[in-house]
Specification:
single chain; alpha/beta; Rossmann fold; 60s Ribosomal Protein L30, Chain: A; 6-stranded mixed β-sheet; 16 helices; 22 strands; elongated; disordered N terminus; binds 1,4-dihydronicotinamide adenine dinucleotide; binds 2-oxo-3-(phosphonooxy)propanoic acid; serine biosynthesis
């Protein structure tokens, strides 16, 4: 696939960035198409221990096989995003990623159906001993007595963890006329009612279910959830299934209850240590197993690879992450609605940081009109990230912006903006520094894009992009001419120009868009013009 020479560090690439992406576990090539067809992306498919220089990669794509440790993150100095093409992120050190400003995303819905179907295949296999019978006939036997099974109809299926997979599984169980009992401490009663399932506490589920299947993430609370004590509470002859994560059913305890005959059978897709070859539990006739393949269908792999590819492309393009583990997640609808404002606030933060070079104590963001109804915390984080990215050496983004601001003693807050001065939406950001306050206001105009409409007390209207020069001056005849001449002498061409003033002859500002980045010398020379009191360049 995708094997091209690795590019140099993207940080050195300036504006037309090229991104290096490492696909460390096997993924659907069709699903990776958004990455492979992207001319700004260089995609390399290799295991991490086969890569010579990990520091060049901007994004790391994994499934469950690669363990993403703090040490690996330290080697991947340029890493901005870790994308898990699947659900479980227990192989990724999320805290370490957050501290390093690395966004972690997953693909939570892509493999739900496949995993639910595989779990159901496990239930049926246990009930009818299909794998054992297959082994027997393959060994040349014709044993019609040794594999008596049990019907599923009328039996109770206990589902521990009633999220996406648990829910899909319950629908399939009902199709088989089973009763479903659910334990999930985080499941709202209304949701259980809506889905028509009976909830129970764990002890009740353990004592009533004929078949128990776990579908929780592996956390400190769920590790060993079905251990010595809890398995003892189950019915004699119970079947146990783990297609979630190794360790939710304690393997030692399971072996104990298999050996003493309390547990009639178990089906495992996942193990405490993987790869699990020659696993001691699988030596037992009553235990059937698959090698972590619940999500290994063509459909699921296409879904998850496509989902993370799109996420990575969007993220590297500066858009917010949709399914982030270390940021609040958004619905697709909210994502689409918030996206234009996100770009705007990020640019506003970027501008503020460049015109406010002094230490800053406080950043205050106000939202008015349509935007105020959205989850504005996403936008404030984007603004903070845009602002701080000029000030700290470490990578700053939405994940760690609040943390970094707090570490630097910058207070930030959100308020409601009542007066939107005729705009359908308005965002006002004020930065207070030592002896100076700077305010900008922006709006998003549908089919027109983000606009900055006010700087301090001056009305302007410009698209926040490219090479800009900001000037404060007195509104006197001839200033614009002098400024134009000076830029001409420096061979700087003005593309567009905005002038704002409050009253004739008073204070005024200019915002110029120029064709190339100006030097610090040009910025300084501009203030040699008598009427110009301040000038700065802004690179967006
Ligand atoms: N074998 C495989 O290939 C696959 C395994 N998985 C595993 O399945 C797990 C579940 O996946 P989804 O249903 O998509 O996740 P989900 O997040 O939709 O559902 C997990 C549910 O577990 C519940 N939960 C959390 N802590 C709990 C506790 N202490 N007791 C009871 N319930 C608890 C949550 O409230 C949630 O409803 C994943 O975390 C992953 O580890 C997922 C996909 C494929
Ligand atoms: O999505 C999950 O949590 C899974 O366990 C699937 O793992 P995999 O991507 O098949 O290594």
């Amino acid at each position: 696939m995708i094997q091209q020479p690795v590019l140099e560090q993207t940080q050195q690439k300036g504006k037309s960035q090229l991104y290096n992406i490492l696909v460390a576990d096997s993924m659907s090539k069709e699903g990776l198409a958004p990455l492979l067809s992207n001319e700004n992306v260089n995609c390399v498919e290799k295991k991490v221990d086969e890569v010579e220089d990990l520091s060049v990669y901007d994004a790391l794509l994994v499934r469950s096989a690669t363990t993403v440790t703090p040490e690996l993150m330290d080697q991947m100095k340029n890493l901005k995003i870790i994308a898990r093409a699947g659900v479980g992120v227990d192989n990724i050190d999320i805290d370490a990623a957050t501290k390093r400003g690395i966004v972690v995303v997953n693909a939570p819905e892509g493999n739900t159906i496949s995993t639910a179907e595989h779990t159901f295949a496990m239930i049926m296999s246990l009930a009818r001993k299909v794998p054992q019978a297959t082994m027997s006939i393959k060994n040349g036997e014709w044993n019609r007595k040794g594999f008596q099974g049990t019907e599923l109809r009328g039996k109770t299926l206990g589902i521990v963890g009633f999220g996406r997979i648990g829910t899909e599984l319950s629908k399939r169980a009902k199709g088989f006329e089973m009763s479903v009992l659910v334990f999930d401490p985080y499941l709202p009663t209304s949701r259980a009612e809506e889905l028509g399932v009976t909830t129970a506490d764990l002890d009740e589920l353990l004592s009533k279910a004929d078949i128990i299947t776990v579908h929780t993430p592996l956390t400190k609370d769920t590790k060993g959830l079905l251990g010595m004590e809890n398995i003892a509470k189950t019915k004699k002859g119970v079947y146990l299934i783990n297609c979630a994560r190794g360790g939710i059913i304690d393997e030692e305890a399971l072996e104990h209850y298999i050996e003493n005959g309390h547990v009639a059978g178990a089906a495992l897709d996942v193990y405490e240590e993987e790869p699990a070859t020659n696993h001691k539990l699988l030596a037992h006739e009553q235990v059937i197993g698959t090698p972590h393949i619940a999500a290994s269908t063509k459909e699921a792999q296409l879904n998850v690879a496509a989902q993370v590819s799109e996420e990575v492309v969007n993220f590297l393009d500066g858009l917010p992450a949709l399914n982030s583990i270390n940021l609040p997640t958004m619905s697709k609808e909210l994502y689409e609605t918030i996206r234009p404002y996100y770009e705007l606030t990020k640019k506003m933060g970027d501008i503020l940081s460049q015109v406010m070079k002094t230490p800053v104590q406080e950043i205050d963001v106000q939202y008015g009109g349509e935007v105020a109804d959205l989850d504005t915390s996403v936008l404030t984080r984007a603004l903070m990230a845009g602002f701080l990215s000029h000030r700290v050496d470490a990578p700053v983004n939405d994940v760690n912006a609040s943390l970094i601001a707090k570490e630097r003693g910058i207070i930030f807050g959100e308020k409601y903006l009542t007066n939107t001065v005729g705009y359908s939406n308005l965002i006002k950001a004020t930065v207070q520094g030592e002896g100076r306050t700077f305010t900008i206001q922006g709006t998003f105009v549908k089919e027109y894009g983000p606009r900055i409409v006010r700087i301090n007390d001056f009305n302007v209207d410009f698209y926040p992009t490219g090479h800009l020069i900001y000037i404060q001056h007195s509104d006197k005849p001839g200033v614009i001419g002098k400024m134009g001449q000076l830029l001409g002498e420096h061979n700087v061409n003005i593309a567009t120009m905005q002038v704002g003033r409050q009253q004739e002859g008073g204070d005024a500002i200019m915002m110029l868009a120029v064709d190339k980045e100006v030097t610090d010398e040009v910025v300084k020379d501009l203030t040699s013009i008598e009427e110009i009191t301040y000038s700065d360049k802004i690179e967006l």
